[in-house]
Amino acid sequence: MLTEEQIIQGCQQGIKTHQRELVVRYSPLLMAACRRYVHDGAAAKDVLQETFIRIFTHIHRYQPTGSFENWMRRIAVRCALTWLDKSKIKKEIELTEIHLSKAVEPEVYHYLGFQAINTLIDELPIGYRTVFNLNVVEGYTHKEIAELLDITESASRSQLARAKKLLRQKINLVDCQKKASL
Amino acid sequence: MKWQVFKNRFSKEARQEEAEVDIAAIWEAIEPQVDALNKKKKRKKRGFFWLFFIGVAAMVAFSTYWITHSSTDLPNEAKSEQLLVPSVIQQQQQESDIDCPPVIAQATSTPSIATLPTPSTTPKSQVPLPSLNSPQKSTNELLEAISPISTVTLPSQLPSASNSPETINSITSATPLSTSHLQTIAPLPKRALSLLVVKPKYPAFPSEPILETTPEKKQPKHQFFTEVYGGVSAIDRTLSAKDAASASLLQVRDQYETPLEALQYGLTVGMQHRPGFWWSVGIQSTTLTERFAVNETTSVVDSIMGIQALRINITGDTVPIAGMIAQTTTTNRDIEIFNTYHLLDIPLTIGYDYQFGERWRAGVSAGIAANISLQTKGSIPDELLQLNDIEAEQASFFQSNLSWSYHFGLSVSYALTDHFELRLAPTIQVYTDDFSVEGYGISQKYTLLGGRLGLRYQF
Q1: What is the pTM of this model?
Q2: A127-146 burial, b if ≥16 CB within 10 A, otherwise e?
Q3: Which of A46, B2, B206, B215 is 20 to 30 Å from B125 by CA-CA measure?
């Protein structure tokens, strides 16, 4: 079995078997990343294909100082954001920004497991969800998010705060339903 | 739970999340683009190697220019002879013709002239120099003209009667090219005198020649050549499994593949140094051919529903009895494919040739070759004898170029003319690098043993 280092070297040399091995090994992981931003299955598949093409195109630039998975994941996120209609996200963010009060600290996350929370995040509006995923999952700063989505830093912060608030409401609702059922 | 704690935990789980995906469909969709990308990369790589080749060619051109312009002793010398010697002749001629007073005065007033040997009055010393009368004479003619004078024997003492104008005239006309006389007669440029190598002539009557002339023709220190050659070699192929899992693949390839021959041709340019050393650089094409052949018959026995028996009852009707019966399927595979590995090398060779006889030379040579391209064509089997196209899938099995190989050989050459030479050279070339890529389980190396026939043109 090829190691990650061998796969990287093989892909840098343009060896097809190594490229195929990379696709086999990392497709599930990168598909999950793509699906986080692109809900439509067929579109997510397109985004994943584009991600692999970009990976193979730019793999000679990869420096083994950082995690290879992170490097590929960032490419996947950028591909997904390219596919998303940014203007739509921007418009939604601008509309919701004026209703912002302050950031909400969620305190009831531990009531639910990862999958349940994930499902609730998927139900968030696209603008909230995108900013939430970029900040919480991918670790982008608000400055980076602002550049990626072509919005202001404050808009990014407010979107995250509203996402957190909405998520807490949803979690509370689910929690109440859970308690009632007991 | 604080936000940061949740964020860390959720982020960690989210980044490990995997989604279901049809990997085969994804690969199928991107494969053409990946192929195009690989080809593009290959072209870029080839471009780099062509740059390397151009660099080598530039170096050869530069060294050629440098050597040509730094080893011009002979032409310059010849030029100076042609330009300066006639001026000597002219000067002497004028002085002897007009019986120049300063010459006489110098000859008589200089104390050393009293001890200078004077030409004897033998017919040899009085031989006139008709050729010197013409300033337009060539160097060779001049040398021929002065050669008799080089054997002139001179008396040690100048007789007192030599002060007479006739005697002085005789001195100046009969010994025009004796260095001491030239110095006495007129101050000539040093460069003109440098053409005449003078040995000391004291004491009198030296047995050796007084003047040594420049040789008519000098052999050049370097000589350039270009050579075209072609050859055929036997192939010694070494296959080995890189890991235990590839042992069965090794067995299949060993069993069904047979190395055939290697054909080579190339063009080199180089330089031959006078003692016999030479070097050359060029470009060489090598095609290795192998045969993949399968001729086997396989039989598969299976059970299918069929008629086991026919029964005829008492009324005369035939009743088939159905049941499982054996079915044998025989498949005959007869495949023959010729695989080729085409290599393009830049060989750098040094050698030494030993001349024996007028036209024959024997030599040894050794060198290295940078491989700039490896292209494969044909098919190789996998463990299950399924064929893989090594032209379309070369990157999965073989390198696009190797790094180095080395070669050494012997040679016998025969000079057809002054410029053309026929060379026969038994040669061994060893490709030390593995032809296959790292991810492929079989290591594949080659050694070629064969002969080359070449035609060399020297200039």
Answers
A1: 0.44
A2: bbbbbbbbbbbbebebeebb
A3: B215
